[in-house]
Design brief:
The complex is a heterodimer of chains A (275) and B (590). Chain A is built from four helices and ten strands; from the N terminus they run αααββββββββββα. Chain A is an alpha+beta fold and 275 residues long. In chain A, helix 1 packs antiparallel against helix 2. Chain A starts with 11 loop residues before the first helix and ends with a helix. The chains are: A alpha+beta (275), B mainly alpha (590). Chains A and B meet through helix 1, helix 2, helix 3, strand 7 and strand 9 of A and helix 4, strand 1, helix 8, helix 9 and helix 10 of B.
Chain lengths: 275, 590
């Protein structure tokens, strides 16, 4: 049975390795289908699109994962060395190669376009006019939230005015600043209404991460970056820093409350303004 | 060749120091690289064990640790700044001083002349110099662990302004200065090596060894060297600019208006994203500087122990070249949420998913190699199969991260940590282990113990999956990278048992590497002797010379090559392998 026509031998090493690959496939199927641990509860409008994009990529890459690891397991179990028997001698198959190459390219192209539709809907769409605007400034190791107040106009800020009691350098002599509200570590926004976040940093790079809202954007010193999202669920959420920013990076967090109505939000803003 | 480069028996004997310490013999230099990198791996691995300890039990008092580390673990609680320096040093040591060093420095030096039929590198002295500069860079980075104000704390990516402003964190003073010095020395050493490799492979191949007859290891080292030659100068340049910002008062990376510790910083006009662009312009090719040689070695070893030619040699070569070329236009996928123009995010998504195509081609070809094989399950063979499995697992998660919209949630989480550890740490590590078990007889004239080698494989295979696969789950749950205490966040508390599981698995994985180290060092002196030139019945030129190989590598005459290195199980032939030096017959033409 020389020259590759024989069946090969089932060896202990081959079977064990195949068994381990099978366990890998089954365990990953369990974790990705039963989802005992999964994304934090979704609370934003655009987040649904990101989650379904993730699921689409998961299905495609999951199938590839099972096929490749499964084939590898099958081959190592099936084709162990067997006496003087030879392996099969073939080392090219241009048609199969071209087919797999084109198939991969087509699948990836489809994923690119699916992904870019979601990306465009998040980044290339202007925030609706009625949005709540919050100026967020990161610093070692806190998040400052600046609201324009009832007049809808932000007061002037200047880094030269920054002191221990004026963390964002708000110019109190500016009439627009009179009713501005500054909140450290606590952010509010009403449900169902777009939120425009204007991000800055005072010192090093931070990253404004709202896990429940599928929102992450670096705050870079010297840049003002705007992102927007629409909260869909009321409740208490956490804001994290996702970019290493120094020794207190792990505790650079803030609380985010999505209020059940514009009135509830206005009430909080009024209270916060008094402090 | 001049007379000074003739066969070993005519070569005058060198003393111990010239032969084993200040040697210009590529084989000794390769082994020096390898053993130095192993020492660095022990350090880098130990640091990761401390990190895992902290992540599993962040709030548990540990008086024993306080005894071991009186300042860093004062009162039984790890200092947060110590944790960040662990992160930084672990990443830096593993990426540069283990993987880059062992794969290109170690295997590159040892294998290039042996596999292309040359007596040594094109520039033996430059080769020795590159090792000694590498050793100095190792000493410098190691010393950063002992700086009183702390080791560097900017992560292995050293993002500015955190790295540019010494006041930003305790370790950002002397710690970062040492980090920059070590990286600059390492870059210089890598450039010398790369130049040498390219020259040697292009000009010193023996008669008959055309480019399309090179083992894939050689192709991968050639392509890697070109990448290194183009990428490392960018890192070196960025490191110099960073130094100017730190000590020269320039503002390449620091913008105006920065307030540090309540005080305005005297910089204006720089841009923090410039550092990221420069770093990742180097950093992404660097990923392939690590992965390509691993691919090449794993391919050759896989073919040898499958007793079957590599499937589609040409596509293997073309895909390596394609990966290398594309690796220079994908760097922006590290920066989707960095504040870079979102239009660029679209471009980098396209190029990133493009680079997945040649990677997929390679995966199909490895499967095609194992299909219909007659596998010899040696330790080296097992590790080369393990490489394929790890590369696939790590590669597929790259599709999520390369899709910019999906990356918004996953960026800077443990999903990224899982991805890059599988694809550019565990997979290359497996290829390197395969390479060591495979070429050990050629290096030292003895075998490593196979039983221990197999035990090492099974524990590493299970351990690596138990450590790195659950990290995807942590990342989906939102756990950020470089976080000293995940339980600070309510949304992460429910998945803390996963952290404990990973840590326990990491301890097993770490401990099983001790089996390898013991096996390696004991086998040098007491392993079974390799009496045969070609114990694995392989086809490459390195298997035509004695184990270990003497100075000058080949006898009076350099070998002549007649065929490609993948003639395994050729029908109608007496043996199931035909060395490259056997003239072509009517039955086997290549």
């Amino acid at each position: 049975m020389a020259d590759g026509t024989g069946p090969g031998r089932i060896t202990l090493s081959g079977v064990v390795l195949a068994g381990l690959l099978l366990v890998l496939i089954i365990v990953s199927l369990y974790f990705f289908i039963a989802q005992p641990f999964w994304f934090p509860k979704l609370a934003s409008e655009h987040g649904a699109k990101i989650d379904s994009l993730f699921m689409a990529v998961l299905v495609v890459s999951g199938i590839a994962f099972i096929l490749v690891q499964g084939a590898l397991g099958y081959f190592v179990a099936r084709y162990g060395e067997s006496g003087t028997e030879r392996a099969e001698y073939w080392h090219d198959n241009p048609k199969a190669e071209a087919f797999l190459l084109i198939l991969t390219a087509v699948i990836l192209t489809v994923l690119v376009f699916m992904g870019q539709r979601v990306w465009a809907s998040i980044y290339f769409a202007d925030a609706p006019k009625n949005a709540t605007i919050i100026q967020v400034t990161g610093e070692q190791f806190a998040w400052n939230f600046h609201y324009a107040g009832p007049d809808g106009q932000f007061g002037r800020t200047d880094t030269k005015l920054i002191t221990g009691t004026n963390p964002i350098g708000l110019d109190r002599s500016d009439p627009n600043a009179k009713d501005d509200v500054l909140s450290i570590g606590v952010m509010h926004a009403p449900v169902g209404k777009p939120v425009r976040v204007q991000l800055r940093s005072k010192d090093v790079i931070h990253s404004f991460f709202l896990p429940n809202f599928r929102m992450k954007q670096d705050a870079v010193p010297g840049m003002a970056i705007e992102v927007w999202f629409t909260p869909t669920l009321t409740g208490q959420y956490e804001v994290a820093c996702a970019e290493l920013c120094g020794l207190g990076h792990y505790r650079m967090k803030a609380a985010f409350t999505v209020d059940e109505s514009q009135d509830a939000f206005n009430k909080w803003l009024e209270e916060a303004g008094k402090q | 060749m001049s007379e000074s480069h003739t066969a070993e028996h005519t070569h005058h004997e060198l003393g111990f120091i010239r032969k084993y310490i200040f040697s210009t013999d590529h084989k000794i230099i390769g082994i020096q690289y390898m053993i130095t990198a192993m020492a660095m791996a022990v350090v880098g691995g130990f640091l990761s064990m401390l990190m895992r300890y902290q992540l599993a039990w962040p709030t548990t008092l540990s008086p024993n640790m306080a005894k071991l580390f009186p300042t860093a673990w004062a009162g039984g609680i790890m200092a947060p700044e110590f944790y960040i320096s662990l992160v930084t040093m672990h990443g830096t040591i593993m990426v540069f001083f283990l993987f880059t060093a062992v794969l290109t420095g170690g295997f590159g030096n040892f294998l290039i002349p042996l596999q292309i039929g040359a007596r040594d590198m094109a520039f033996p002295f430059l080769n020795a110099l590159s090792y000694w500069i590498f050793l100095v860079s190792c000493v410098v980075i190691f010393s950063a662990l002992f700086v009183q104000t702390g080791a560097p704390m900017g992560g292995w990516t050293s993002y500015a302004p955190l790295s540019a402003l010494p006041a930003a964190a305790p370790g950002q003073g002397t710690g970062v200065t040492l980090w920059i010095t070590a990286i600059a020395l390492f870059s210089a050493s890598g450039l010398m090596g790369g130049l040498n490799y390219i020259t040697t492979i292009l000009t010193m191949r023996t008669r008959g060894l055309s480019m399309m007859r090179l083992p894939l290891t050689q192709w991968s080292l050639l392509v890697t060297s070109v990448l290194g030659l183009l990428a490392f100068p960018v890192l070196l340049g960025a490191a110099i600019l960073l130094t100017f910002d730190r000590v020269g008062g320039t503002s390449f990376f620091v913008p105006a208006g920065v307030i540090m510790n309540g005080l305005p910083v005297d910089h204006s006009g720089g841009h923090p994203l410039l550092w990221q662009h420069l770093f990742w312009f180097f950093g992404h090719p660097e990923v392939y500087i690590v992965v390509l040689p691993a691919m090449g070695m794993a391919s050759d070893i896989l073919s040898t122990f499958c007793r079957k030619p590599i499937f589609s040699y040409r596509m293997m070569v073309y895909s390596m070249v394609a990966i290398a070329a594309l690796s220079f236009i994908v760097w922006g996928h590290h920066m989707f949420v960095s504040g870079m123009n979102p239009f660029l995010g679209s471009v980098f998504t396209l190029t990133t998913l493009l680079i997945a195509v040649p990677s997929a081609v390679k995966t199909f070809n490895w499967l095609g190699t194992v299909w219909g094989a007659r596998i010899r399950f040696t330790a080296a063979g097992l590790f080369s199969i393990g490489f394929v499995s790890m590369f696939v697992s790590g590669g597929l998660s790259g599709i999520f991260l390369g899709t910019s919209a999906a990356d918004i949630q996953l960026q800077d989480t443990y999903f990224v940590v899982a991805h890059f550890h599988l694809v550019m740490a565990i997979a290359p590590l497996f290829a390197a282990f395969g390479g060591i078990y495979f070429w050990f007889p050629k290096m030292f004239g003895r075998f490593m113990n196979e039983t221990l080698g197999k035990a090492h494989f099974w524990l590493s295979f299970i351990g690596a999956y138990c450590v790195f696969f659950p990290m995807h789950i942590l990342g989906i749950g939102g756990q950020m990278r470089r976080i000293y205490d995940p339980t600070q966040y309510l949304f992460l508390q429910a998945q803390q048992p996963v952290n404990v599981f990973i840590t326990l698995a990491a301890f097993v994985l770490g401990a099983s590497q001790l089996i390898f180290l013991l096996n390696f060092f004991i086998s040098i002196f007491a392993g079974k002797r390799a009496l045969d030139n070609n114990p694995w019945q392989a086809t490459g030129l390195e298997w035509t010379v004695p184990c270990p190989t003497g100075h000058g590598n080949f006898g009076e005459e350099l070998p002549v090559v007649h065929r490609w290195p993948f003639d395994y199980s050729v029908p109608g032939e007496k043996e199931d392998f035909i060395p490259q030096t056997v003239p072509a017959t009517a039955t086997a033409k290549h």
